[in-house]
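step: validate -> pass
step: tokenize input -> pass
step: predict -> running
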Amino acid sequence: RAILGDPFAPANAPNTAPAADPAPRIVPRGAPGAVRFLVEAEGRPVAEADVTVILPDGAHEKVKTGPDGLSPAFTASGRYGAWARYVEHVAGEHAGKPYAQVRHYPTVVCTIPGLDAAGDEPANETRQDDALRRPDPASLSLTRLLPPLPEASSSLGAVASDGFLYVYGGHIAPVHTYSTEAVSGRFHRLPLRAATGSAATGTNAGVQAAWQELAAGPRLQGMNLATHAGRIYRVGGMDPRNAPGDEADNHSIAAAACFDPSTGRWTDLPPLPEPRSSHDLVVLGDTLYAVGGWNMLGADGGETWCETMAALDLTAATPEWRSIPQPFTRRALIATAFHDRLWVIGGFTDSEEVSTQVDVFDPVTGRWSRGPDLPSGGVNGFAPAACVADGRLLASVADGSLLALDEQAGTWQSVARTSPRIVHRMVPVEEGVILVGGAAGKDNLDRVEWIALP
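step: predict -> pass
step: emit ->
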């Protein structure tokens, strides 16, 4: 098999192939700087398969696939050739002679683009050094692919609640392409137990798991989901109003809604005090917070930056938003609740600079303080993902690093590495975390990836 063009583009993505294709095959997975080769037979990954890889410099490397059917990662860009050896232990007869096994040798040739394609970076930012952008193959082996998103999407909403992973909307067109057809309002959930199985032991999870489509809503990107008492909350977001091919006419919205899984319906909540998008949404205690972001005013209106955080008491008989001053103006940030405080991580400032700043809000005192900044370098503060898992505050950043806060040292430490991406989401699950969607280069990702926590 020869793959023409970018092997990670949606048209060439392995996930688009029939899941039950019986023919053995070998296909590239991952992203620039972190390509692996997946060996499958009868639609299932093949463990311990012998794989020979011809590297772009002409060298040959022989490796074996892991329990998930994936080879170790290769970081170089350029032309690859690879073939696998897969043996079926079946007896038969051919040309009058008996045989005890059938050997298959699936092959693939593809060109892996350079790391310039691996990040949707602001134009005024300097590139981070090559060492930061090259993932460690050993740490990449900690990941496992789960059933892909129903549609490749970035800047989407995602949250885990009561055994399900919920995802909503997002950008589904090539990056920086905006129109009424470039965003989604579809809403799905994935049963986590069926999807992850015993992920840490490498069992064949996800084979019978399937995404369930739920009640759709407005087409939005630049928002997130949060959960409280079993319900799912959606607040704000960006609504493009131009037809495809016309000048972008992007508007932030103030609408808020709550989804009740027991009824399968959305109900409206009071709208935000001001429209916002490119913000984040967090529940801390019984309060829903919308933090950061900006208000996009359409093709001729420009935008204004949000200078306050909005808070909604979810237990109030008549909930009303209240505004809380925030000591920053940033969008493309991420936030999460940790140690009874709201942590706001990274983002992009109103001075058009990527920020590694971390701000912490104490709802008891109403005061803000500073937390340890993310490690400097490149655009790792732009559109990260974050959550709390195994009692640790975690951040997934642009170069593929999974960072954990060392509270005693007051620094962030890399605990795992996966393929580069931005504007994705991360949710905690048993034995690890799941990265959801995002963008790499010019394409959105349908990748749903479980990562073990060391």
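step: describe -> The first helix runs from residue 130 to 133.
step: cleanup -> pass
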